[in-house]
Design brief:
Blueprint lengths: L3 E4 L5 H12 L3 E6 L2 H10 L4 E5 L5 H9 L10 E4 L15 H29 L3 E5 L12 H20 L6 E7 L2 E2 L2 H5 L4 H9 L4 E2 H13 L8 E4 L15
Helix pairs in contact: 1-8, 3-4, 4-5
The protein binds NADPH dihydro-nicotinamide-adenine-dinucleotide phosphate and 2-hydroxyethylsulfonic acid (8X3).
């Protein structure tokens, strides 16, 4: 594969698995995240040309400086995977922390928009490119205590639709993937390092694995140029929607 793919949130979970699967395809990878050590380790592990960018998607200036800093041979990006993001907390509105709300809106929504805006000009100029945003089942249905995390993913969905409309004249593909429960560090982050509580989320069902989502992302990029997968919802078989889950006893 001749493509260059920029992956935000490549240090863990879905982003890391996508980096691994694209590396197997021989893609060139721009690996992004805040944990530099993990980026460097992944770069060493992957048998494909990689460039790393360490930045926080919430830092508007930092995002633009990072993309600007790309050496000329890395400036042409074919696929942007806007994956960085997390849930922070699972609390009813009246008890939830404003800091958690800020973290989710700033990373999942504003951060995704900053990265898109920074990467977009070369796609528009070339009339070529593919943007894939990580939505969620939480952006299709609201669930109890999901409030602002769900709002952030609904915003991702609306922004994705807006991008597809505005970029229509430029031959740029715009997609969203909406997974259900995926066993990653997601719940560990949501529950602020409470690994026991996080493990319980995945203990009683066969959850999606990060590799399952990565497979679907690869498929979306491998469709013929005249085909856009606009939305792809991927659920564990044990999950019917955001709240109906057939858990093992
Ligand atoms: P992980 O916690 O395993 O990975 C999250 C990634 O996002 C990490 O690489 C982290 O990197 C990066 N990240 C988070 N915040 C920032 C930030 N402010 N700046 C830069 N990078 C950031 O979770 P997942 O792999 O599960 O999550 C990836 C995406 O998938 C998220 O958008 C999530 O909402 C979505 N999703 C997850 C589902 C699930 O059940 N797991 C289901 C549906 C969607 P670092 O900390 O190094 O910066
Ligand atoms: C992550 C899946 O159901 O925890 O977006 O919101 S869920």
């Amino acid at each position: 594969m001749e493509k260059t793919i920029l992956i935000t949130g490549a240090t863990s979970g879905i982003g890391k698995a996508t980096a691994e699967i694209f590396a197997q395809q021989g893609a060139r990878l721009i690996l992004c995240g805040r944990r530099e050590e993990r980026l460097k380790t992944l770069q060493k592990e992957l048998d494909t040309p990689c460039h790393t960018l360490c930045f926080d998607v919430r830092d508007r200036q930092g995002v633009f400086s990072a993309i600007e800093s790309l050496p000329s041979e890395w400036k042409t990006i074919d696929v942007l995977l806007n994956n960085a993001g997390n849930a922070h907390g699972l609390d009813p509105v009246e008890k939830a922390s404003l800091d958690d709300w800020d973290a989710m809106i700033d990373s999942n929504v504003k951060g995704l928009m900053y990265v898109t805006k920074a990467v977009l000009p070369q796609m528009v100029e070339r009339k070529k490119g593919h943007i894939i945003n990580l939505g969620s089942i939480a952006g299709i249905e609201v669930y109890p205590k999901g409030n602002v995390y769900c709002a952030s993913k609904y915003a991702v969905d609306a922004f994705t639709q807006g991008l597809r409309i505005d970029l229509n004249p430029y031959n740029i593909r715009v997609s969203a993937i909406h997974p259900g429960l995926v066993e990653t560090e997601f719940s560990e982050v949501r529950f602020k390092g409470d690994t026991q509580r996080a493990a319980q989320v995945y203990a009683t069902l066969d959850a999606l694995q990060a590799e399952d989502v990565a497979d679907a992302i690869l498929y979306m990029t491998q469709c013929p140029p005249h085909v856009t997968v606009a939305d792809l919802t991927l659920l564990p078989t044990a999950q019917a929607n955001a709240t109906i889950i057939n858990r093992k006893e």
